[in-house]
Amino acid sequence: MPTTPAVTRSTVPSDSHLRGTPLLRVEDLKVSFPSEAGTVDAVRGVSFELHPGRTLGIVGESGSGKSVTALSVMGLLPDSARVSGSIRLLDRELVGLTDRQLSSVRGNDIAMVFQDPLTSLTPVHSIGKQLVEAIQVHQDVGKIRAWERGAELLDLVGIPNPAVLMKSYPHELSGGMRQRVVIALAIANDPQVIIADEPTTALDVTIQAQVLELLKKAQAETGAAVIIVTHDLGLVAGMADDVMVMYAGRPVERATVDELFHHPRMPYTLGLLGAVPRPDDRSGAPLVPIAGHPPLLIDLPDRCPFAARCPVALDKCLDNEPALLEVHAGHGAACVRSNEIVDGAIDGAPVFPLPEIPPGVMANVPREQRNSVLVVEDLTRGFPLTKGAVLKRRIGTVHAVSGVSFDIRAGETLAIVGESGCGKTTTLLSIMDLAKDAGGRIEFEGIDLSTANRRATRELRRRLQIVFQDPMGALDPRFTVSEIISEPIRAFDLAPAREIDGRVAELMDLVGLDPAHVDRFPGAFSGGQRQRIGIARALASEPSLLVLDEPVSALDVSIQAGVINLLERVQHHLGLSYLFVSHDLSVVRHLADRVAVMYLGRFVEYGDVDQVFGSPVHPYTEALLSAVPVPDPAVERSRRRILLSGDLPRPTEQQTGCPFASRCPLKPTLSQEKQQRCTTVSPQLEETADGVDHRYACLHR
After folding, report:
1. CA distance 304 to 322
2. In this structure, are 371 and 344 located in the same domain?
3. What is the pLDDT of residue 232?
4. What DSSP character marks residue 394?
């Protein structure tokens, strides 16, 4: 890191790295909030130590208290919060300090990288002004030197043309670029502790890989200790040295990363690990969801809070809440049966048995013998690019989808993957809109959408349904579950009025909901339950194709596993076809039969999911797959990351050559003649040499 003027620190001596003492020591931290229903005990006795250069991963479901713990360290809790216990930054106690006193610590000794960079950046100030302010508030330097230091920081985090970007505003940057700026702000004063709260949740997998490398680089440059708060176990496996698993406001397991991932001793940890789909798993075995939901943190009884969801709970689990005790050196677990758990089993029986998903109705039918449900040929979709506030004029075209072709057979799942802005959601919406404003040809169940009459179009609407990413946004909060699910049945006149209630009950049972809750409103259900309601509503019209737009991205990993298993069961039971869009390649590997990799409106690789994931050909596919975290520390340490430079180009101009050429890691290794060909010749999808159904669009593979 470039040299900077000395930073005055009242809390951190210069030899802290040499002494080996903890930088941060948290002891019996408790945080509660008042509410109408009573006192919410969000954090109930958290203790840990953080040493220089080490990374602690804090994991758990939503509501487990992990973010409140991180905000407590920063002193960013609301005034209504009641905090007790101890948070010591070396020899300085932070609990009880005023906000003014803590302002000398925040950004100086302790810095934070938030989940949403827009909440960390002031929209009315330039990037340079915000960096200068962050530097000058803690360092006695002039504005010119602070400006130079800000540009050095932007260069350090990999932002091109930092002198130019210093004058830009947050809204002018992509999500990945904004997160880089936030990391630059965090390391501006060489902090001793960096806290990252879900730093990559909203980012594409390629940008996520870049941000994680930046965090590692920032830690190496500053020698800081790092706390990563996340629900992504793959991220923890690759970044953390130590892991603390939280449940119901307290730690339930704590160990080194290798020990916790390879020898977990708490059933909750086993459940989290079993619920995570892996991009390197070809078994196709169902995931292991954790039944039930976390308890409300109001007046918790003195018993194991996980007992109601634990498949191996005993009567003694209800006697009192187990303490976090050492199973062996450096590994603690809060479970009365922790000593019985060996390799995820007790007496040879798995703690979480694999759920059974019966074979599908199309399982024994070869793909070539199945009917085509959807055929798309040369789909093209563009949007006008206009300028002018009053008199708008067209100045160009956004080429969102350019010549996409694919087909989906009965009972199979096709996934479309790629970075944000690649055109995958536009492809879905063009199909759902029955291609009214799109070029090309779309045939659904043998009917050409361009020639379908009004009656045929109504039938197509019934047979083609969608499940959205945000279940709450897709459900009318004023309708009961019965009204939501029955609406398509009534609209398409699919059952007599006297049979509708029975049909709704059948659908609720099919998606794993209690039919007794039919008169409740969506707000009374959890996120996973609301997504199940959305699936039930989509199934109510008896469709043959479900379009799934990021259906599990907003869910906790344990709930996500249950919804993924549900989608598999429903598909096998009804013989449905799925068109699935996701940025989570682990979910795609688990759920899809075929996959299309999309870049700048075009498919660059297409074929069987095992072929594409197991033997990727296109450099973009290789980069995507290398960026996916694997929940295994040993695998993560041995993997080679392919980091793409820059962001996805803007799709406002037709590409004359390969659309990936500007970011391709293969191109610089080619001869000058081949590089010239990349920029002048547009590659088309062609079969791989081994003869399997696997196509790619690259001139030099």
Report:
1. 6
2. no
3. 86
4. E
What CA–CA distance (Å, rounded) separates 31 from 66? 11
Report pLDDT digits (tens) over 112-154. Answer: 988 888 788 999 999 999 999 999 999 989 999 999 999 999 9
| Phi, psi (deg, nearest 5) at residue 590 | -75, -35
Torsion of CA 621, 627, 628, 629, to 10 degrees: 160
* Element of type H or E holding 220: helix 205-222
**Would you say how long the chain is, in residues?**
701
If residue 190 lies in a helix (H) or strand (E), which one and from where to where?
none
Predicted confidence at residue 666, as pLDDT, reads 93
Helix 127-136 crosses helix 175-186 at what angle (to 10 degrees)?
20
Distance CA 697, CA 460 (A): 33
pLDDT tens for 441-480 read 999 998 888 888 888 888 888 999 999 888 778 899 999 9
Residue 46, phi-psi category: left (phi > 0), alpha (psi -120 to 50), beta (remainder): beta
In the chain, DSSP finds a helix count (H) and a strand count (E) of 24, 27
Cα gap 331→261, rounded to integer Å: 12
Collapsing DSSP to helix, strand or coil, 623 comes out as helix
The answer to whether residue 163 is domain-embedded is: no
Whose structure tokens read 């037709």?
Answer: 654
Mean pLDDT of the chain: 88
User: What is residue 202's predicted lDDT score, i.e. its pLDDT?
Assistant: 66
Distance CA 260, CA 254 (A): 7
Element holding 150 (H helix, E strand): helix 143-156
Give the domain-ending residue among 326, 350, 374: 350
Measured at the CA of 441, the angle between CA 437 and CA 445, to 5 degrees, comes to: 110
Residue 570 token pair: 């429903």
Measured distance CA(257)–CA(569) in Å, rounded: 34
Q: What six digits make up the tokens of 156?
A: 């350090």
Q: What is the pTM of this model?
A: 0.87
**Domain of 698?**
361-445+582-701
Cβ pair 63, 294 in contact under 8 A? yes
CATH of the domain at 384: 3.40.50.300
- Pair 586, 441 in one domain: yes
* Dihedral sign (CA 235, 240, 242, 246): negative
- Return the SS3 of 209: helix
Query: How far from each other are the two terminal CA atoms of the chain, in whole angstroms?
Result: 39
User: Is the pLDDT score of 691 beyond 80?
Assistant: no
